[in-house]
């Protein structure tokens, strides 16, 4: 190009923040066009949409519009859209597409995405779809389904590039130029021994900077992390984070290379696991906002039932002190404060503990230290808030002794919350259960019961 | 190799689940050796430790042991360890290493890691360290610091490989073989025009499978996502997830290529953002479990203060009904149930809503639909639990009318919780504030107040 080319006064505007992902206006426009039955307009609107954005569009449309939309794109349905959909919407779309089209779509996907779709189907539907899939792929999918749920075997892709140590860089590049059935995307070569066991990796950029005559064995990265097929996906994610990996070889029970996990799958796992803890701490089980009201309500009942049992237990504690409440009605006014402060202080500790367990920052090696710390935090904040609310209540009800009782029970309950907030999740974790699910309800039951008991008990003892 | 080689009866055991990451026993052994002053034993134990594991070891040790350990490894301190450390521990270790060593370590890191460390230092310390860093790198770091926090500019690496369209595959490979200052890891080449603006990418595996004479322009992937330097890291993460990227070009205001974001940085962002929502919903601000008790206590006070104000407001509601409580003490026993059920049902909805907003599943296009759904869920579960607790309380206190009042206020509060649980976070989000921080306290204040008010008010009206 010539050097004196005039400098362009208006450079192409880089994608602004608003342009990340699907624009809400596009969903509205598509919905409008669908309502008006303008198929051509819809087709124009979605012309150059990325499959992930098409998935978001499907999720953004109401059920009626979604149905109409799927009919329009049915004939050139991009299979890549399916794995991107939330479960509820995916089931709906899969149902509408029918077994035949669904099987065709699955057959065109990468092996890991295909398995992900198949494993999400109901038993009966899964059998029907599998029957329509070509035998070789079906066998692969059935093998995949034999691995435990949430294992590396479910996550991995079957296609990878494996080379022996004695090949030269030139051999390898020539092989890659000739070979027709390489995976679509890959970032590392896996170097295998005569028994097809991985002995190291070669990053593609390393291969590219090396001269042709060098042997693979000379540029091999032997400090490689292999992933057993049965490894839990959470452990896989930890490995990738810890070692900044982009891909890793997956090996079977004999140490033979059978597949590869790539970082894009791991990104999904990390999202999923973090979301799970968040949802579980919030007492929610449903997978997405598209779940119908009836199923959502049913999914949330368990946690509400636990809450109900918790508060009924707390109520029976209050019931023991009706004489005191009858005599000093201010106790009924103040008692929720002690329970709520204990509950919230405890939930802070539970949140930190659940997260620390998930990220493996909390281990047997430092547990004792962290427990002592949380006890101190509880005591510190207990004293601060006891002083505030004790003196406040003393003035409010013109009763210093009442204030003192409130303050004392507050300190007690907050120290307890500090201890229980870490001890309960640790104990649950020790039994290999998930602390995110049950630590919260356990904790608040104890802080409610001890809060009411200490406050009303002390009041009965000292004020009546 | 010969074909009749005997098959190995004991294949190398692949890394089992327990072997992911640092073993707790290793931390204990190191602590023991440190206590006994056995430097040689410590050195042997940590011989082949990955830097991420060394970081976990540092975090797992108590403050005293950590200090002793840093002294042992001071002379061959691996700079890669620093970015892996939690903030509190990192500050401690940085302090101990001293400005000189710290500056040396930062100078040896990739530009993105170096910036990450520098931005985490306090103002004064930052200046001192910057002064000891070679001028060229210092300038780069200062430029990086000029980008907004949590922007792509802070995240990006300055080293990348850019090639023009008219180069052939052969030219490119030869260039890479000759060039000494290529980045350590990279996955894509960026293709630039004469003004150094990216016009497409070439994945390394694509380059490797293409014959030498072909032009870069012929294998370019033009459907490329560019990241503006000012883009928020959350948007960058969204882009990577949506398009399964491993790297993306970062462009300045003029659209010129200035750096690259890689997926390992994005993985950290995804973790960080998911953790942030979890922590904020739990009312926690501290970054890690290593924060000292005093700072932790201080960090948690804000949320506890909000809880206190919330419950005091609720208490003043109760105070209006002391006459009713005085006459029917069962009201004091039952009132926490209405408040707690409303609060927990509402927090379920808040949790789902906060997550749906974070993952952009909830948009203006479907908000109305989701609100209607949550109202239905609230009504459904409200009726279910009203029936349980209404009849239960009716029997318990042998008072059907009391049971009816409890049931009615329960339905009311749970429908309200369904509505407020989604409306409050949506409203907060509309004002561009973070719903994870403040939706919870807002919600529970309303469910407490309305719970007590509806139950005690109805009781006053119907039972007295």
Tell me what you see in this structure.
2 copies of one chain form a homodimer. Chain A has 3 domains: 21-148, MgtE N-terminal domain-like (MgtE N-terminal fold); 162-281, CBS-domain (Roll); 293-463, Tetracycline Repressor, domain 2 (Orthogonal Bundle). Helices cover 65% and strands 6% of the residues of chain A. In chain A, the strands form 2 sheets. In chain A, strands 1-2-3 form a 3-stranded mixed beta sheet. A 3-stranded mixed beta sheet of chain A has the order 4-5-6. With 464 residues, chain A is mostly helical. Chain A has helices at 24-35, 39-45, 51-60, 63-73, 81-84, 87-108, 111-120, 123-131, 135-146, 152-155, 169-178, 204-208, 216-219, 233-243, 263-281, 293-319, 322-327, 330-358, 367-396, 400-430, 435-463; strands at residues 162-164, 188-192, 198-203, 227-228, 247-251, 257-262. In chain A, helix 6 packs parallel to helix 8, helix 16 (293-319) packs parallel to helix 21 and helix 18 runs parallel beside helix 20. The relative contact order of chain A is 0.06. The longest helix of chain A is centred in the last third of the chain and has 31 residues, at 400-430. Chains A and B meet through helix 1, helix 3, helix 11, helix 12 and strand 4 of A and helix 1, helix 3, helix 11, helix 12 and strand 4 of B.
């Amino acid at each position: 190009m010539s050097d004196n080319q005039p400098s362009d006064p208006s450079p192409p505007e880089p994608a602004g923040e608003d342009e990340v992902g699907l624009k809400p206006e596009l969903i509205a426009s598509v919905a409008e066009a669908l309502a008006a039955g303008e198929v051509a307009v819809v087709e124009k609107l979605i012309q150059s949409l990325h499959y992930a954005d098409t998935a978001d569009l499907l999720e953004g449309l109401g059920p009626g519009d979604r149905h109409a939309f799927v009919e329009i794109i049915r004939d050139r349905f991009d299979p890549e859209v399916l794995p991107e959909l939330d479960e509820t919407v995916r089931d709906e779309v899969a149902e509408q597409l029918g077994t035949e089209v669904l099987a065709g779509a699955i057959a065109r996907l990468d092996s890991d995405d295909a398995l992900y779709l198949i494993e999400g189907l109901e038993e009966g539907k899964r059998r029907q779809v599998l029957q329509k899939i070509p035998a070789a792929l079906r066998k692969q999918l059935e093998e995949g389904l034999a691995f435990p749920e949430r294992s590396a075997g479910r996550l991995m892709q079957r296609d990878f590039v494996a080379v022996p140590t004695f090949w030269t860089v030139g051999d390898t590049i020539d092989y890659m130029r000739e070979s027709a059935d390489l995976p679509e995307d890959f970032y590392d070569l896996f170097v295998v021994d005569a028994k097809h066991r991985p002995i190291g990796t070669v990053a593609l950029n390393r291969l590219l900077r090396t001269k042709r005559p060098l042997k693979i064995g000379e540029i091999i990265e032997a400090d490689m992390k292999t992933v057993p097929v049965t490894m839990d996906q959470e452990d896989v994610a930890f490995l990738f984070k810890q070692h900044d990996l982009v891909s890793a070889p997956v090996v079977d029970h004999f140490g033979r290379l059978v597949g590869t996990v790539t970082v894009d799958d791991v990104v999904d796992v990390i999202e999923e696991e973090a979301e799970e803890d968040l949802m579980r701490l919030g007492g929610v089980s449903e997978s997405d906002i598209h779940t119908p009201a009836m199923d959502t309500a049913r999914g949330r009942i368990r946690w509400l039932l636990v809450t109900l049992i918790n508060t009924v237990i707390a109520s029976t504690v209050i019931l023991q002190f009706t004489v005191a409440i009858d005599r000093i009605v201010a106790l009924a006014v103040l008692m929720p404060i002690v329970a709520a402060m204990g509950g919230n202080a405890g939930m802070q500790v539970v949140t930190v503990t659940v997260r620390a367990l998930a990220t493996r920052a909390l281990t047997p090696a430092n547990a004792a230290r962290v427990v002592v710390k949380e006890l101190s935090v509880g005591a510190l904040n207990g004293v601060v808030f006891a002083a505030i609310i004790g003196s406040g209540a003393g003035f409010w009800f013109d009763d210093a002794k009442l204030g003192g009782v409130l303050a004392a029970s507050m300190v007690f309950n907050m120290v307890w919350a500090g201890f229980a907030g870490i001890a309960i999740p640790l104990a649950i974790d020790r039994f290999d259960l998930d602390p995110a699910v049950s630590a919260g309800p356990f904790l608040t039951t104890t802080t409610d019961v001890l809060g009411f008991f200490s406050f009303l008990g002390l009041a009965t003892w000292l004020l009546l």
